[in-house]
Amino acid sequence: MSEELKFYYDYKSPFTYLALRPAIELEATYDVHLRFIPYELDIRAVYGDLEQRSARERFKVRYLYADARRFANQRGLIIRAPHRIFDSRRALIGGLYADQHQRFCDYSFRIFEGFFKRELDLEDDYSLSRILTEVGLDPDAFRRFAANEGEAALRRATEESDRDGVFGVPTFVVAGELFWGNDRIQWVMKKLDSLGLRKQLNGEGNL
Question: Which residues contact 148 (CB under 8 A, 6 or more apart)?
Answer without folding.
Answer: none
